[in-house]
Amino acid sequence: MDFFKRYGAIGGNQPQSPADTIQRMADRAETSTLLEDKRAAVLGLKGLSREYRVDVGEAALGALLKVLKEDSEDQNLLKAVLETLNNLCVRESPRGEASEASAVQADLAADRFSQAILRDSDDVISTFLGLLGDADFYIRYYTVQLLGTLHTCSGDELQKRVLVSPTGVGRLVDLLSDQRDIIRNEGIQLLIAMTKSNADIQKIVAFENAFDRLLGIVDEEGGVRGNIIVQDCLQLLHNLLNYNVSNQNFFRETSGIQRLPALLITDPSQTAAGRSGHPMSDADEEDPEWTKQHALNMLVVLDIIRMLIQPGNTNTQSNQTAMQQCGIIPPLLQLALAYEAPSSVRSQALYAIGDVIRAHQANQNLFQRILITAATDDDTINPGTRAIPEPAIVIVIRLSVGKRPAAVSANEYYIVRAAAAHLVQAYVGSNADAQLALAATLTPPGDINTISESEQHQSAGSLIVSVLLDWREACREDVWRVWYAALLLSTILRDHGECKEQALKITLGDTSRGEEPLPLINELMSQARQATQHGADARVSVALLTLMSVWLSNFPKGVSVFLEESANISFIVEQISGSTGINALVQGVSAFLLGLVYQFDIDPETPMTRESLYPILSKRVGADQLLIRVQRLRDSKEFQYAVGLAAGTYSNAFGGAPAEVFFDGVFTELFKQHYESFRLAIRLGPNEALANPSYAYLQGSMTGYASSAASGSAPGTPLVAGASTISRSASPAGGSSAAGGLGGMLAPTLTDRVSAEPTVAKAEYDALNAKFAEQTNEVSELRHALESSAAAYSALASAPQQHDRVDSAQLDQERSQLARVEAERDEHAKEVLNLRAQLEEVQKQLDISQLSGQQPMPDSDTATRVSELEQQMTALRLDNEKRETDWQSRCDELQKKLASAEKQVVKAAAAVRSTNKKKEQQQTADLEAMQADVKAKDELIAQLTAEVGELSKKAEQLDQMDELKERLANLEKEQEDLLVYLADQDQRAKENRAKLRKYGEDIPPSDDEGGDDDDE
Amino acid sequence: MSSYAYLFKYIIIGDTGVGKSCLLLQFTDNRFLPSHDLTIGVEFGARMVSVDNKDIKLQIWDTAGQESFRSITRSYYRGAVGALLVYDITRRDTFDHLATWLADARKHSNANTTIMLIGNKCDLEAKRSVSREEGEEFASKNGLYFIETSAKTSINVEEAFVQTAKDIYEKIQMGVFDLSGESGGVKLGPSQPGISSMPNMSQANGYSCC
């Protein structure tokens, strides 16, 4: 109370209430002209603001805000004001949690003052945002703190205010670059709060390069092993991307995805080992570093990854590709297999891999090729056996159905099994090849009772089969092993006839010891029977029976094998008709299975025809009874839960094993697809099938399916039409009449072709001629371009004063390019000559065939004309050759002159001017284009040459006179063209000379100048 | 993945319904949607262009034209190096508002920001109510680039974006921008050894692929 006395003394020795004193100080803060008085008053208010929050706030808030706006130069004053405001607005307890009346009062006041500040008519918020740029530590710090306080009170209001300021969000993001950790961390907190749900702020924060800055901080703070700041940064990153497609695009476009794999790598030494191909070879080394913080950080990273590749999003495909390309799978696999890591992390890593490859063929294929040497969760295995690399998919399957680490409970490990199964399904989904590859590994384990031994080196398929067969042993540890084994086998078989067939071939029993081979399908049924009779966990029976349903649907051959074992039918009938002590779910699945068996019992070799099954179905069980059982299954909460799970309604990522899990998505999907036809089918008598059109269709489709499966085609083509196509394509192998028909069909076409041959040759010949003309044209064009470029050069050279300085290096380069172009042109000219020679040859051959033709000799006129033409052509060719060489020498001359001009230019030029450069670039581009042209034409020439060769052969066969005449006419035309071309060339040469003269070069008149007309 | 020499940030501004989002969509996806939803706030798009044989990544923020979003969209001015100011040649009011838009852009953006004035919907010649000359005049009076485009037929869309990039590129060559800053709107690509070197002539290795 000294304080009041002191102020009281100032006021004149009378005792005062705190309220009076506060009022006095508020007045002084507002009206004092002396800065010292003001400062003293504000400091006084600050001192009282905690204890007398309401009084100070009510008396002085306006004054404080005024000081803030008017006296912003005085830093000490500013600090005190900011601190006081923060004291006034900060809440004692989170909203709605205050227990004491005084705390409630205080919080109400805090809210009131916050509102007053936020609604300040002079927009004091923008003043705060400005202060965020202040260099002083405390001013910045108190300002961020105050904004944080205001956000707790009224986030929406503050966000609106910040958005009004065009630089507001930018200033907040700038806090991330503050060198002082305390301010930076406060800034992160504030941004996390502000980006939780405001998409506008999310986008502006991203626009201000927050991705870069945040990932930079994560790196600085030691990556994902770092402290809570790392988690905060990742959380902010998560906020920016969540539900924000625009930011997700931006993240990908700024190579954000490429930076994710580095976040997953937990230990640099592990990555080094990973690169050498033994990522987990040092598995005995316990990782003590999996702290809670580390796990939390990692879970946020994994969450970010999965968020970017949610199934069905427009961006998912490109994000999946980007992720795969930047190598995200190996570190994810390492995490998944790190048995010392928390189950939640392992599970999320597996889900993430699944999401990366799901419905993405390239990624699935790449995943297929991954080999790893991994430790198992079962650390009792002799370390010496670990060295063999295995496909990643086998290891993932082992995670799903294998033993769990001793330290982890079955319930906790469930999430790892579920995630591994999710990954297998993502790998197999819409990937028939992968399905088949896995089915091919379905082999009986060497000894049925050996899963306890080494599950280490079993193939994927045999591992699954052995867990199913030895369910008692597996269940002792964990019923989920059996349940997931059944799910995975369903996944491998579903909708894939060939896979179903493959699995059907598996038999058990040692034939060498005289045992009867028992098909796997019946062995599994026998296990289901035993599990039910011995009162094992109902999940075992349910899992095995749902597996049967998936296997036998659309698979008459399987049904036939199933029916070979009479105990199978009696077992399921028993389950359906029993009334007490039978699990309703087992009952329901049994009913569904019986219906399927009846529906698909159409294999011609079935041991039990539909006729014999029908009485069982209709009399012993009764179709109504059967349907009721199935409906009850459909309506059960367990079934509905599985439907919801498949649709992604619930996430079982963290919760351990839910009690409701009995069914899986593969079965519920089959059930839904099949339910309608199923209801129809079980009402039909054994021979009614064909009477009902929809059923006939169904049967047809089944036959189609069977044959498509038999001929090895992909699944998913079970159509009647498909079946007939296949039978046709298959029949030629058998040498049946269909093949003959095919031959008959081909024969006339061939004959037609042969008879049409001469016409074709003629047409080709014409085309060749046309091409040749075109070629010649192009050559002249090219020449023209060269010319003009040379002219441009000389212009450049002769007018250095106009263009000032020229970059000599560039000139050199261009000159060499010119030389190259010219060389290429020369080559080109040669080939033109070559072509011409070939043309001549063709002509000769034509003459020969003309002579040897059976028709009467052509009239002498034509013959004379031909020889005349030939002579002319030779003359022309020689002339052309001469011109070419002539032109070449002139070109050389020109170049020499150019070189000397260049030298002059270089001497004259001291530096480079940018305007000049543009022109040069243009020329370079032109040169480039010309070069491309030359190359393209080279190819054309090669092609033409080949065609000429072919054509000349054909020409020998031509024997019809009128055709020859036509050819003659063509030749004449061609000749004319050549003449025109030559005239053209001369003209151009003349022009060129003229141009050169214009540039001041002394060129003597050529001897043929003015005498061009004499050429013919 | 995609490396680039420079990264430019653009914004597209202008009245609502002038076709800003359609311009962006045409530029990035070569698509046109006749009935595009109103943009809420700001949307992002990106594409690579080539200027002077250099790959330049354009990050484009397409803003909402409605008045109610104006304060939000202003936050993007400061960080952008190119601004496409769009009006609709069939709606005079959108042309009349250009002065306001321009004042806003000048006030909040970097002084070096290149502004391209775009008269969009030039395929609707019959409905034209702002002549090309008027657009040109406004642009030259205010020192802007000018082009008429059609997001529907894609006429000049490419040119509008590329011409802006060319101008920015030239400004870089002249040393107008500070490339080290965080919020300049121009950034160097990830693996760019030096910037001051000449627009290089070492295209020789480009021949092999033709």
UniProtKB/TrEMBL annotation, chain A:
One of its GO terms (cellular component) is endoplasmic reticulum. Residues 811-981 form a coiled coil. Residues 990-1001 have a biased composition (Basic and acidic residues). It is a peripheral membrane protein. It is found in: Golgi apparatus membrane. It holds the Pfam family Uso1_p115_C. GO terms for biological process: endoplasmic reticulum to Golgi vesicle-mediated transport; Golgi vesicle docking; intracellular protein transport; methylation; vesicle fusion with Golgi apparatus. Residues 1004-1016 have a biased composition (Acidic residues). Residues 990-1016 are annotated as: Disordered. Residues 892-1015 form the Uso1/p115-like vesicle tethering protein C-terminal domain. ARM repeats lie at residues 59-103. Residues 362-682 form the Vesicle tethering protein Uso1/P115-like head domain. One of its GO terms (molecular function) is methyltransferase activity. Keywords: Coiled coil, Golgi apparatus, Methyltransferase, Transferase. Belongs to the VDP/USO1/EDE1 family. This is General vesicular transport factor p115.
TrEMBL record, chain B:
It is a lipid-anchor. SUPFAM superfamilies: P-loop containing nucleoside triphosphate hydrolases (SSF52540). It is found in: Endomembrane system. Residues 188-210 are annotated as: Disordered. Residues 193-210 have a biased composition (Polar residues). GO terms for molecular function: GTP binding; GTPase activity. This is Ras- protein Rab-2-B. It comes from Coemansia thaxteri.
